[in-house]
Each structure stands twice: as structure tokens, then as C-alpha cells.
Specification:
Elements: E1 3-14, E2 16-21, H1 26-31, E3 36-38, E4 43-46, H2 55-59, E5 66-69, E6 72-74, H3 80-91, E7 99-105, H4 112-116, H5 125-139, E8 145-156, E9 159-162, E10 172-176, E11 180-184, E12 189-191, H6 194-207, E13 210-211, E14 219-220, E15 223-236, E16 239-251, H7 258-261, H8 266-294, H9 305-309, H10 311-315, E17 319-326, H11 333-346, E18 350-359, H12 361-368
Parallel strand pairs: 2-6, 2-17, 7-16, 7-17
Antiparallel strand pairs: 1-18, 3-4, 4-5, 8-9, 8-12, 8-15, 10-11, 13-14, 15-16, 16-18
Helix pairs in contact: 3-5, 5-6
Bound molecules: adenosine-5'-triphosphate.
Length: 369
């Protein structure tokens, strides 16, 4: 169906960046020190992992302690619901025809899957998002009608698979003049309740490639993208128009150092491919951050499937939230500061948000007269 942009609603948005620190795991509590100090709901310090340094080192700047500021900082005691409370208004833009992207970024074992998928007692952002979308639709007292559909894919070793297909073949990315980057042949299922999406999410997650690595017992070896599309049909004086909003929820695979995971063979190759796409993502974040500070810079989206899929979320028509996940353990200092460095750069990224209107057949007939 042909689409047009709604020019009146076009606005610039800044990427919203939040940091979530998980608690020490039981294993870590025995061998690691907690080095994350959440100063307040916007500021966080990573303490020097070397405890031999004292006050004098600190004032003479000989310490590796680092401080950062973000839109939100969540301490280890915070639940996924606490995180969701602050992003819920953004997520609900999807019911008004806006595109929204939420992604978790962090090293292996830092809590990305926990944040996006969660557990029964602490549901993650994917589950909380689609529950509130359906609640919002139920509460809507206009005469608009809604159609919700969902797709779920993974990028594993630079190959795209449909997580909603039992034995999915390799899927290809295509550039569509109206819809931007699309995944050809990806199944999109119409859903009428949050429970149905939860069922699809669980089926998809059971098909996701996970492995036990030294760094995380159930490490995600693929990047997963759950996409929820809401088509809102509005009846007006001159026929009807359809607003189309899209919510992309992304759980990235963890970046890791081969030397730390003790992987070899296939696992090592997986790790290299995961790192390749995460490096491409980091390079895009770098370039986009520079672009907003110093003007135009080349952004290498085409270097990986992941960055092509995330292109809209990173600079195009999307309100975007990045949740940087970190571990509080002292032996993760380098991973943590690396994650926070990219999160800090991502704060500079701007997107350009506008509603997408689909021209309905009624309207086309009217305009064709
Ligand atoms: N907020 C939290 N509260 C309690 N446990 C948590 C929390 N966040 C993460 N964990 C635990 O930490 C471990 C690693 O988390 P998770 O699997 O989400 O990491 P990940 O970043 O997705 O890792 P990978 O990239 O390897 O897939 C899991 O055992 C998880 O249950």
C-alpha cells in the first residue's frame, strides 16, 4: 500500500540512553568486588578495580575511576519495571503511528537478555511493551480500529533466520522505496492479545542460538529483533487514513574477548562474527556521534546485517532508546568502561521522527475522483 509522511509531525529526537547495572551473581560475589557506584538516577561512577590506590591517587588523577552521566541510571536493585516506567511514553508512540526502537547493548553476561526478555517474576522490556500496547488500545475511546502484527528474527553468523518459522531458511535484506530496509519472506503474524505475542516470543526464544560459555551459562549467540507493527485506521471527513507505527525491540549478542570465553571451533567463529557486527554497530555509533558534533561523517551501515536492520533506529525515522547493561564485578572493568564509552557517544545521536500514513483504498478512490 502506498505511504506518505505526515509533514506536520516531523521532529528531531535525541537518542535516549540509560544504564542498567545488574547485581553480582552468586559466583561473582565469592570472587569479585562491586565497583559500580550509582551516584543518583542520572550519574554513575566506575571505581578503580585496583584497591591499593588511595585518596592521594584520586586527587592527583592517578586513578582509573571514571564518572558518566546519562538520561537514566539504574542500580542493581532496580527491576525491569523500573526501567520500563521511564521508556513507556516513548514505546506507546507506536500506537500513534511512530517508529520506536529499544535495544540493549553490553558485554556478554551483563544482563541484556534479562533486561529485554526477563523472567516470570521480573518481566523484561519486550513483555512489558506489548502488554501496555494492548492496554492502550483497549483504553482507546476513539472510533479508530487497530491491527497488531509481530515478527521475530535473529541474525546468527551474519545470516538472518525467522524465529517464528520452525525451520527457517536464510532470509535476505532488501531496500524498499516505501518501507526502507525489509527482510524478504519474514513471517508477520497478526495478533489480538499480549498473551499471543508472549507465546510467539517464547517459541522464538526456544529456537534462538544460545551456548554455554565461560562468561555466561546461557549466552545468546545471535542478535534477536522482535518487531511489533500497529496499524491504526482513522475515519475522517474525507475517507479514512491508516497510521502505521513500528516498535523494534532488540536483544544483541554479547561482545566478548575470545581469550576470556575459552571458546574454540564453532563457538570461536560465532564469537568472531558477533564481534564483527557489534564492531560495525560501534563504528556507526561513533560516526553518528561525530556527525552531530562536527557535521557530516560517513556512517558504515552496510558493514553488517545488524547495522542495516538497525539503520532507521540509529538515525532515521525512530524514537530510540539504548539500554547499556553493565556488570558490577571488578574483573569486568574494561568491558564496563568500553560499554559506557559507546553509550556516552550514543547520547549525541539524533533521529528525525515523523508519522507514517498509509493511503487507504477509500482515500485513493476519493483523490482519484
Ligand atoms: N537485574 C538482574 N537481576 C538478577 N539477575 C540478573 C539481572 N540481570 C542479569 N542477571 C543474571 O545475569 C546472568 C547474565 O545475564 P544475561 O544472560 O541477561 O546476559 P547477556 O548480556 O544477555 O549475555 P549474552 O550476551 O552472553 O547473551 C544471568 O544469569 C541473569 O539471570
Amino acid at each position: 500500500m502506498p505511504t506518505i509522511r505526515a509533514p506536520a509531525s516531523r521532529q528531531t529526537a535525541t537518542l535516549q540512553v540509560a544504564v542498567k547495572c545488574r547485581p553480582l551473581t552468586d559466583n561473582e560475589s565469592r570472587r569479585s568486588r562491586h565497583i559500580i557506584q550509582v551516584i543518583d538516577d542520572k550519574n554513575v561512577a566506575v571505581l578503580d578495580p585496583d584497591i591499593s590506590k588511595g585518596y592521594l591517587d584520586l586527587i592527583q588523577n592517578r586513578t582509573k575511576e571514571k564518572r558518566y552521566s546519562f538520561d537514566h541510571v539504574y542500580a542493581p536493585g532496580c527491576s525491569n519495571t523500573d526501567v520500563y516506567k521511564n521508556i513507556s511514553p516513548t514505546v506507546l508512540g507506536v500506537v500513534q503511528g511512530l517508529n520506536v526502537t529499544v535495544f540493549a547493548y553490553g558485554s556478554t553476561g551483563s544482563g541484556k537478555t534479562y533486561t529485554m526478555v526477563g523472567s516470570r517474576s521480573d518481566p523484561g522490556l519486550m513483555v512489558l511493551s506489548f502488554r501496555t500496547i494492548f492496554d492502550q488500545i483497549k483504553k482507546d475511546d476513539s472510533s479508530d480500529t487497530f491491527e497488531v502484527s509481530c515478527s521475530y528474527l535473529e541474525v546468527y553468523n551474519e545470516v538472518i533466520y525467522d524465529l517464528l518459522e520452525k525451520s527457517s531458511g536464510h532470509l535476505e535484506l532488501r531496500e524498499d522505496p516505501e518501507h526502507g530496509i525489509i527482510v524478504a519472506g519474514l513471517r508477520r503474524i497478526k495478533v489480538h492479545s499480549a498473551d499471543k505475542i508472549l507465546e510467539l516470543l517464547n517459541i522464538g526464544n526456544s529456537r534462538r542460538k544460545t551456548e554455554s560459555t565461560e562468561a555466561n551459562a546461557t549466552s545468546s549467540r545471535s542478535h534477536a529483533v522482535l518487531e511489533i507493527t500497529v496499524r491504526r485506521k482513522q475515519k475522517g471527513k474525507y475517507g479514512s487514513q491508516v497510521l502505521r507505527g513500528k516498535l523494534a525491540l532488540v536483544d544483541l549478542a554479547g561482545s566478548e574477548r575470545a581469550s576470556e570465553t575459552n571458546n574454540f571451533g564453532q563457538k570461536l567463529r560465532d564469537g568472531a562474527n558477533i564481534n564483527k557486527s557489534l564492531l560495525a554497530l560501534a563504528n556507526c555509533i561513533n560516526a553518528l556521534g561525530k556527525q552531530n558534533k562536527k557535521g557530516l561523517a560517513y556512517v558504515p551501515y552496510r558493514n553488517s546485517k545488524l547495522t542495516r536492520i538497525l539503520k532507521d533506529g540509529l538515525s532515521g525515522n525512530s524514537r530510540t532508546v539504548m539500554i547499556a547493561t553493565i556488570s558490577p564485578a571488578d574483573d569486568q572493568y574494561h568491558h564496563t568502561t568500553n560499554t559506557l564509552k559507546y553509550a556516552d557517544r550514543a547520547k549525541e545521536i539524533k533521529t528525525h521522527v515523523h508519522k507514517i500514513l498509509e493511503l487507504s483504498t477509500i482515500m485513493l478512490k476519493t483523490t482519484r475522483g
